[in-house]
């Protein structure tokens, strides 16, 4: 654990608090206040938030349907959702380029049925679509696992006491699956916040997230000090977000998630 996590973290921290001459400085950390960096961070938060909300809206009904299916082997259905994750990440995103391009599959279908074409490749919408596709399984699986742990007798008891479906869903099903919801939100929001590959391929350099800024500092500008400083700030922001989610879960459930 020391070699794989702690030592690289201290290595990055060393770059973050030093300049090119190995002198101590905090300018790499305070550089997040630069208007360009703040704009990229704000856009990253916006994209990650929208991605998380869309994934949650799509994942919860899907997980609920999977849970309610009376199948002897539900594992196979779950396997179908996991299967795309086994494909190469770059291939999946490049496939979305073909789907969303001006002459791609989507516009060909729209033209065939007499609807106007859309031009969403290299926009924020395309980045969000790519992230939703990529991270949706990470939202479905924890919610499905939480729903699977709900005792059917509890639902039946609520029905016997006169509770309708909506009331049972709001007051019993959702609260008992809250752990899965919190886990799913964290598993989607955190990688979406720090992502840069999806925005590179589907944003075409026009959607500059904080992950793209950090990646460019390391690879193009070769400024490892500034890149490390921004990485540390992003890591602190991610840890703060996870802490807030855990506190919300603790206040409602009386237990910590992680």
Question: Would you write up a description of this structure?
Answer:
The protein has 13 helices and no strands. The chain has helices at residues 2-16, 27-30, 35-68, 74-82, 89-100, 105-112, 124-148, 152-160, 165-176, 178-194, 197-203, 210-219, 224-253. Helix 3 runs antiparallel to helix 10 (178-194) and helix 5 runs parallel beside helix 11. The longest helix has 34 residues, at 35-68. It is globular and about 75 Å long. It starts with a helix and ends in a 5-residue tail after the last helix.
Q: Can you lay out the helices and strands and say which pair or pack?
A:
Layout: H1 2-16, H2 27-30, H3 35-68, H4 74-82, H5 89-100, H6 105-112, H7 124-148, H8 152-160, H9 165-176, H10 178-194, H11 197-203, H12 210-219, H13 224-253
Helix pairs in contact: 1-13, 3-7, 3-10, 5-11, 7-10, 7-11, 8-9, 10-13, 12-13
> Which residues sit in consecutive blocks of at least 5 with pLDDT less than 50?
none
Find the count of extended strands (DSSP E, 2+ residues). Answer: 0
Rg, rounded, reads: 22 Å
Q: Which range best describes the helical content: under 10%, 10-25%, 25-40%, 40-55%, 55-70% or over 70%?
A: over 70%
> Structural class of the helices, strands and pairings?
mainly alpha
One letter per element, helices H and strands E, the order comes to: HHHHHHHHHHHHH
What is the subunit organization of this protein?
Answer: single chain
Largest sheet: none
Strand portion: under 5%
Q: Report the mean per-residue pLDDT as an integer.
A: 87
Shape: globular
Q: What is the count of DSSP helices, taking H or I runs of 4+ residues?
A: 13
Head-to-tail CA distance between termini = 18 Å
């Amino acid at each position: 654990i020391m070699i794989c996590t702690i030592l690289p973290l201290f290595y990055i921290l060393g770059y973050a608090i030093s300049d090119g001459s190995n002198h101590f400085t905090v300018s790499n950390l305070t550089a997040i206040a630069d208007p360009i960096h703040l704009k990229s961070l704000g856009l990253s938060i916006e994209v990650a938030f929208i991605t998380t909300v869309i994934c949650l809206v799509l994942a919860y009904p899907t997980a609920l349907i999977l849970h309610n299916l009376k199948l002897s082997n539900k594992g196979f259905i779950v396997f179908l959702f996991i299967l795309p994750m086994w494909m190469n990440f770059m291939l999946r995103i490049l496939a979305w380029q073909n789907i969303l391009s001006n002459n791609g599959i989507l516009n060909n279908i729209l033209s065939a049925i007499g609807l106007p074409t859309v031009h969403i490749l290299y926009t924020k919408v395309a980045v969000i679509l790519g992230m939703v596709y990529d991270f949706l399984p990470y939202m479905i699986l924890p919610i499905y696992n939480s729903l699977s742990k709900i005792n059917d007798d509890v639902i039946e008891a609520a029905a016997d006491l006169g509770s309708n479906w909506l009331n049972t869903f709001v007051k019993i099903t959702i609260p008992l699956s809250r752990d899965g919801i919190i886990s799913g939100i964290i598993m989607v929001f955190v990688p979406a916040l720090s992502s840069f590959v999806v925005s590179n391929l589907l944003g075409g350099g026009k959607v500059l997230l904080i992950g793209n800024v950090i990646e460019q500092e390391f690879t193009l500008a070769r400024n490892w000090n500034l890149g490390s400083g921004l990485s540390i700030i992003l890591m602190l922001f991610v840890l703060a977000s996870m802490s807030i989610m855990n506190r919300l879960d603790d206040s409602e459930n009386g237990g910590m998630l992680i």
